[in-house]
Amino acid sequence: MTEPTSTEPTSIDVRDPGPLRALANPVRLRLLGMLRVDGPATVGQLAERSGEAAGSVSYHLQTLAKHGFVVEVPELARDRRERWWQAVHDFTHVGAESAAGDPERRDASEAMRRAVLDSYHRELLDALEAELTLEPEWIEASDSSDIAAHLTLDEFRELAADLAAVRDKWFARGRDRRDGTRTVRLITHAFPRVER
To answer: Which residue intervals define the domain HTH arsR-type in the entry (predicted)?
Structure first.
């Protein structure tokens, strides 16, 4: 059984177009997510899990490393040919509000956020399909819901802070694998609805 780590979660604030474009690639997003959730891995392990060719995985890891998202961990290698990689941060924050006056940054930010939303969509569909193999109690504990509420800007900010507190609490508790655990994904979105 792994003991929970006591280190605080780390994050990277991405505002430059280069790193944003790098993350707009769905393969890179998936590889970074695997390293964040499952921990350090070799190119071969990531290729097997992702279904990508090892050469492609290596290329994408080099791109992620160039922008500071992943690093090599040579101390895990058993020989000179084996290359291990790990994520540098637990979270990525994209300052979308800061891109409003910069068309290049806005376009890169939008492309990256669209890629993230596409990955969420695929992950949710995969989870729906996987229910066929899950025990009923794990399915019953799942939740997929939405609401619409009429809020002031201050109330909207309070809602976002409440959701962040819930996310942070459960990330801290479930950061490390323990006996009896499964990886559980929490994906939340709070946004002003476009009135038509």
So the answer is: 18-90
Q: Would you say residue 138 lies in a domain?
A: yes
Contacts 24+ apart (CB under 8 A), 118-126: 118/26, 119/26, 119/29, 119/30, 119/33, 120/187, 123/185, 123/187, 124/187
164, part of any domain? no
Q: What is the pLDDT of residues 117-168, one digit of tens each?
A: 999 999 999 999 999 999 999 999 999 899 999 999 999 999 999 999 999 9
Number of domains present in the structure of the chain: 1
Domain range for 57: 11-142
Q: With the C-alpha atoms ordered 121, 126, 129, 134, is the resulting torsion angle positive or negative?
A: negative
Q: Which helix (H) or strand (E) holds 8?
A: none
Contact 191, 159 (CB under 8 A): no
Q: What is the CATH number of the domain that holds 25?
A: 1.10.10.10
Which residue do the tokens 């899990």 mark?
49
pTM to 2 decimals? Answer: 0.84
